[in-house]
Amino acid sequence: MTEIAEITGFRVPPRWIFVRVASTTGAVGWGEAIVAKRPGAVLGAVDDLARNLVGAPANRIEDAWQRMWRDGFFRGGPVLATAAAAIEQALWDLKGKAHGLPVHEFLGGPVRDTVPLYAWIGGDRPADVLDGARARVEQGFRVVKMNATAELDYVDDHAKIDDVVARVASVRAEFGAELRIALDFHGRVHRAMAKALLAELTQFGLMWVEEPLAPGHEDALHVLATAAGGTPIATGERLHNRWEFKRLLESRVVDIVQPDVSLTGLFELEKICRMAEAYDVAVAPHCPNGPVSLAASLQVASCAGNVLIQEQSLGLHYNRGYAGLPSAEMHDYLVDPAPLTPHAGSLPVPGGAGLGIDLDERVVQERAGEWWLPDPNWRHPDGRYAEW
Questions:
Q1: What number of other Cβ atoms are within 10 A of residue 82's Cβ?
Q2: Residues contacting residue 70 through CB under 8 Å, at least 6 positions apart
Q3: Is the per-residue pLDDT at 12 higher than 90?
Q4: Where are the alpha helices (DSSP H) in 1-151?
Q5: Fold type of domain 105-355
């Protein structure tokens, strides 16, 4: 029986956390954790979980996930969730490689030939969105997403709403219906301003509005539905499992859920997709992350028909020396970048075994280091904390 022999975490630029799981046969699988502003806690959680899992059967993935979720008594939270998700992804990578199959073949097989993608423009405080949109269209993308705004107070100047409208209008005016636009409120907009913004934005036919309210205010999303008109509402990137998504789906307000495979784990993401389908809700997996997270997301997107589109991080502002960290891109860590190289704004269904990519372990080892990403600490002019 093949057992888990070793679990090791690595911090690599620009702000990614890779997790390597080795089996007693010498085979290796890779996963990816997130929560980049708490890397020490995440790697500590990986180590804690590893102490319990080393020696366990490597092929009993669901059993390992249940142990990581239930055995600690205290459950949930992003740090434990992402550590468990990374280990679980790596176990799927091992299983697929052991059988010479992509992971999606264990989940029913593909339902599509390609997976559509979208790309980011702008930044945390959005600017230069028109130039960004032009560059993305030249790269072949037909869907872009931008942050809506920087800091907003509970009730703020209407000029800030005008700025949001002007940014979206500039992209819509240049590209018309050729380019679809999603707008991320990032949970930084309070309810009164969200209502005002949504009323102004209905004219642009947005693909969706994302995280219109901060976590903890999901019960107020129905208040925004009227203001949003026909604009779909998307959220869910900070949720961890199907039980949390169940509450969201039962609200009957959200049109698109956005689970992150590096919080849920791969098989849990697939379960969330199936559950969302029963509520006639689409899925757009959250993934402004690294190559392993994207590869794991693609395995589920390949076999779940209600996955609408996949987020990916090529060219993302976080990859370019964010907060003084070294810059890097997904392809820097891949033996062969082809499986994660978009064409015409999409990626083919993965054909390689496991997660469908091969990390260059030499590069991972060379670039691993003790980076730290500071909190943004956004403030209003009077010194009060502002949602980031």
A1: 30
A2: none
A3: yes
A4: 39-53, 61-70, 78-99, 129-138
A5: TIM Barrel (3.20.20)
| CATH 3.30.390.10 domain span(s) along the chain | 4-101
> 3-class secondary structure for 293-304?
HHHHHHHHHHHC
Query: 340 is written with which tokens?
Result: 């994660």
For residue 299, give the nearest of 110, 171, 122 by alpha carbon: 110
Beta carbons within 8 Å of 186's beta carbon, 6+ residues apart? 147, 148, 210, 211, 387, 388
**What does residue 255 show for φ and ψ, rounded to 5 degrees?**
-100, -25
Confidence class of residue 321 from pLDDT cuts 50, 70 and 90? confident
Whether the per-residue pLDDT at 227 is higher than 90: the answer is: no
Catalytic residues: 186, 286
Q: Are β-strands 4-12 and 16-23 bridged in parallel, bridged antiparallel, or unpaired?
A: antiparallel
Q: In this predicted model, what pLDDT tens digit does every residue of 169-204 receive, in sequence order?
A: 999 999 999 999 999 999 999 999 999 999 999 999
CATH superfamily for 4-101 is Enolase-like, N-terminal domain (3.30.390.10)
